[in-house]
Specification:
The complex is a heterodimer of chains A (304) and B (238).
Chain A: H1 3-35, H2 42-64, H3 68-94, H4 102-124, E1 129-130, E2 139-142, E3 145-148, H5 149-171, H6 173-183, H7 185-190, H8 195-221, E4 223-224, H9 228-243, H10 248-265, H11 276-290
Helix pairs in contact in A: 1-5, 1-8, 1-9, 1-10, 2-3, 2-4, 2-8, 2-9, 3-8, 5-6, 5-8, 6-8, 9-10, 9-11, 10-11
Chain B: E1 4-15, E2 18-29, E3 33-38, H1 44-52, E4 59-64, E5 67-68, H2 74-79, E6 82-85, H3 97-104, H4 111-124, H5 126-130, H6 141-152, E7 159-163, H7 171-186, E8 190-195, H8 198-204, E9 207-212, E10 215-221, H9 222-227, H10 229-236
Parallel strand pairs in B: 3-8, 3-9, 6-7, 7-8
Antiparallel strand pairs in B: 1-2, 1-4, 4-5, 9-10
Helix pairs in contact in B: 3-6
Classes of the chains: A mainly alpha (304), B alpha/beta (238).
The structure holds adenosine-5'-diphosphate and magnesium ion.
Magnesium ion is lined by residues 44-45, 87 of chain B.
């Protein structure tokens, strides 16, 4: 493979990895933006999205086969289910903590994360489950570079979701209200905005985006595991910080950037795939030291 | 003729142990401009916050258009046409002027009505029209106040609560803001105006109340209050 081939192949790999990170990072950043909470359970909701998608897909495959239709249906249902769960978690676990000291809500989020991960571990005996799809390995050949149709569809789907989110947030009244409550909640109440309802909506959208990424990851890697949300959660957090936490375009940018950095990073001589995580978290540390506000962010993360 | 729009009875508000409002009672009639005066910390803002539902009353009642709204949520009170322009303007910095105004009409569902209200606001404040796509963070203090008032007019308010609209503004801008308040009042909006600047407020008000440490200590028609210099000296520290 020539140098250009490697560049192109890693571009494809990086984009797909970056799409997953970006979708998960969006929920992180949106929730941080409105209630200043680093929702550590967010990666687990991504994982749960994959498992619920798995269950729905198993039901549907009897009727639809393991095709894109089945995946699409299970993705929509899983997004709705996990989105509602996100709202429930906010109401039950986080809402009562909003007036408590900041550390309490952070610890609550860790607890929710452990509950979700351990619940799925207990239900699956900690086994890997095969996310069976027969999408095949057809694809586009560009010289020595090969990109599967699956990869293209997944990147396309992630792009559609992110564009839809962007339009929602900038063109609709509810989307504008969502940005406004990140700025001043009291002022929003004086505009007639039901702040609790907008917070619920934000959790719904944020967690359902994570669920969509979970299904996409299941489809892409072919297997799912209760621990899959842990590292992705950390990577999504890194992405959100790279882009500037609280910023929606920042999360998209940060996710894609981290995905690309990782896939190109592993091509540097002597830095193999096994160094991927060291590479990302190294970036996180450097960023927190030199530019904690990220690329597009305004607010700094409070030191805890 | 004098039909009450807002009736406050024995209103009590606490911030933790701080007793901020001590049994306040007053009435605002339809079509009037009523001013609430008092030194810093007297409880003027707290009175407005309690009326609009931002702060919970611990006793007493607030009636708007005959309905008891004491326990109503702030966002539901807005839908009745009671709009509060808070101290410090609280505009959404980081969002454009147009977006700020649109958010003021959040409770409207009719897009035509939204467009009509927007035109109306732009007629009163042409400077907002020119800069509608700019980030509101870059407006001057006077322009921010215009935006805050403009935003409050996006739903056709019946009663406006204005908290120190003249704060931090140069004298000619204060005059401009006061002229606009009178204009709104002529259009049929009842106004409850909180001010530290008693001279300015009493010039346009029908009547006034003076607050001191959470109590109403003086009330009367604006004419009388304006003439009685000793009142202003004693309670407003001017
Ligand atoms: N959020 C708050 N928490 C605690 N005390 C407050 C708060 N807001 C106002 N106060 C207190 O309530 C009293 C009345 O304040 P305020 O209504 O803001 O007065 P004014 O608007 O007349 O200057 C003051 O003693 C003030 O310190
Ligand atoms: Mg005040």
């Amino acid at each position: 493979m020539s140098f250009q081939d490697i560049l192109l192949q890693q571009l494809a790999n990086g984009l797909i990895l970056g799409s997953f990170y970006a979708l998960v990072a969006l929920g992180y950043t949106m929730v941080y933006g409105i209630i200043k909470l680093l929702n550590f359970a967010h990666g687990d909701l991504y994982m749960l999205g994959a498992f619920i998608g798995f269950v729905v897909l198993s039901f549907l495959s009897a009727f639809l086969g393991d095709s894109w239709t089945g995946i699409l249906c299970s993705m929509v249902l899983s997004m709705i289910a996990v989105g509602l769960l996100g709202v429930l978690i906010q109401r039950v676990a986080y809402q009562p903590m909003l007036s408590a000291p900041r550390l309490s809500i952070l610890i609550t989020a860790l607890a929710v994360s452990m509950i979700l991960a351990n619940l799925v571990m207990a239900l699956t005996d900690g086994e890997y489950l095969a996310f069976s799809t027969d999408l095949g390995y057809d694809g586009l050949e560009l010289g020595n570079v090969f990109i599967t149709y699956t990869q293209m569809v997944l990147v396309g789907a992630a792009a559609v979701l992110m564009i839809a989110l962007y339009l929602f947030v900038h063109k609709t009244m509810y989307g504008k209200a969502m940005r406004a409550i990140a700025i001043d909640q009291d002022a929003c109440r004086l505009m007639g905005i039901n702040v609790n309802r907008i917070i619920a909506l934000t959790f719904f959208i944020g967690t359902s985006l994570a669920a969509s990424a979970g299904i996409m990851a299941g489809t892409y890697y072919g297997s799912i595991h209760f621990f899959m949300g842990f590292v992705v959660g950390l990577k999504a957090f890194t992405s959100a910080v790279i882009g500037g936490i609280g910023s929606i375009p920042g999360a998209m940018l940060g996710g894609l950037l981290l995905g690309l950095l990782e896939s190109y990073g592993t091509q540097i001589p002597f830095i193999g795939t096994e160094w991927k995580d060291v590479f990302s978290f190294g970036i996180l540390i450097l960023l927190l030291v030199f530019k904690p506000t990220g690329i597009l962010g305004k607010t700094e993360i409070e030191r805890m | 003729m004098s039909e009450p729009i807002l009736e406050i009875e024995n209103l009590e508000t606490y911030y933790g142990k701080i007793h901020a409002l001590r049994s306040i009672s007053f009435t605002v009639n339809k079509g009037e401009i009523v001013t609430l005066l008092g030194a810093n910390g007297a409880g003027k803002s707290t009175t407005l916050r309690t009326i609009s539902g931002l702060t919970r009353a611990s006793g007493g009642t607030v009636r708007f258009l005959g309905e008891d709204i004491t326990r109503k949520a702030a966002h539901d009170i807005v839908k009745m046409g009671l709009i509060h322009v808070p101290e410090g303007r609280k505009i959404f910095k980081g969002m454009t002027i147009l977006e700020n105004l649109e958010l003021g009409s959040f409770t409207l569902t009719d897009e035509d009505e939204r467009a009509r209200r927007l035109q109306h606001v732009f007629e009163i404040f042409p400077v907002l029209r020119e800069r509608r796509h700019r980030d509101s963070a870059f407006l001057s203090g006077g322009e921010q106040q215009m935006l805050a008032i403009g935003r409050s007019m996006m739903t056709n308010p019946r009663l406006l609560l204005l908290d120190e609209p003249s704060m931090g503004l140069a004298p000619f801008l204060v005059q401009e803001i006061m002229r606009i308040i009178v204009k709104l009042n002529r259009e049929g909006v009842t106004i409850l105006l909180v001010e530290q600047n008693a001279k300015v407020a009493l010039k346009l008000a029908n009547c006034g109340y003076v607050l001191e440490t959470g109590r109403i200590v003086i009330q009367g028609d604006a004419e009388t209050l304006r003439r009685d210099e000793s009142i202003i000296k004693a309670y407003l520290g001017e």
